[in-house]
């Protein structure tokens, strides 16, 4: 009984890790797209000066 519970627990952990990694990949893709849009749009400032699109 205990080995069965351990196998089920391991399967649950691996499934959870796989789901979390998939979510992290999507989050990384979204952050990259936002960064890319900001990088491209930074040259379109009306004053024509050199401006950063981020605060830090």
Automatic annotation (TrEMBL):
Keyword line: Membrane, Transmembrane, Transmembrane helix
TM ranges: 26-45
Domain of life the protein comes from: Bacteria
Name of the featured protein: Hydrophobic protein
Species name: Kitasatospora terrestris
């Amino acid at each position: 009984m205990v080995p069965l519970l351990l196998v089920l627990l391991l399967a649950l952990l691996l499934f959870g890790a796989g789901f979390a990694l998939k979510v992290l990949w999507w989050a990384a893709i979204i952050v990259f797209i936002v960064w890319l849009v900001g990088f491209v749009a930074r040259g379109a400032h009306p004053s024509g000066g050199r401006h950063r699109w981020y605060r830090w």
